[in-house]
Design a protein that fits this description.
Keywords: Membrane, Transmembrane, Transmembrane helix. It comes from Luteimonas yindakuii. With 121 residues, the chain is mainly α. The chain folds into 2 domains: 84 residues, Hypothetical protein rpa1041 (Alpha-Beta Plaits, 2-Layer Sandwich); 36 residues. Helices cover 64% and strands 11% of the residues. The protein is built from 4 helices and 3 strands.
Length: 121
C-alpha cells in the first residue's frame, strides 16, 4: 500500500523538484497526485512500496534540514546586507497596502466578535 511522503499544498516547485530528484537518485518508486479541481486537496508525492517509506522519510528529513539551513543562511545574508523587509519598511514603502490589510483584519475580528456581543447583550 502506498504512503504519503509530502503533501504539495503551498510547497514551492523547486522544493518538490528536489524531493522528486532525491527519490529518483535513490531509486525509490514514487508517484504524484494532482490537486483536486475544487481546491480541497493539494496533491501529494506518494511512495509506492511500504518498505521504501522509512528510507524515503529519512532522506526527506535530511533534505529538509539542508533546505532549512540554506534558507536561514540566505536570510542572515539578506539581513547583513540590509535587504530584508521589516514591517516598518512595508509601512513606509506601501502605507495603503498595509492599512487595507490592517482594516480587513479588524473587520474580520469585529465580525467574529459580533455573535458573542449580540448574545451577551
Amino acid at each position: 500500500m502506498s504512503k504519503v511522503l509530502l503533501h504539495l499544498r503551498n510547497v514551492p516547485d523547486e522544493e518538490a523538484d528536489g524531493v522528486r530528484a532525491f527519490l529518483d537518485a535513490h531509486r525509490i518508486a514514487w508517484y504524484q497526485t494532482r490537486p483536486g479541481p475544487l481546491g480541497i486537496t493539494g496533491g501529494a508525492i506518494w511512495i509506492k512500496h511500504d518498505e521504501d517509506h522509512a528510507q524515503a522519510r529519512q532522506l526527506m528529513d535530511g533534505y529538509q534540514q539542508e533546505l532549512r539551513e540554506r534558507v536561514r543562511a540566505d536570510l542572515a545574508q539578506a539581513r547583513a546586507r540590509g535587504e530584508d523587509e521589516s514591517f516598518a519598511d512595508m509601512l513606509r514603502d506601501r502605507p495603503a497596502w498595509v492599512l487595507l490589510r490592517v482594516l480587513a483584519i479588524l473587520a474580520l475580528l469585529a465580525l467574529m466578535a459580533l455573535p458573542g456581543y449580540l448574545l451577551w447583550r
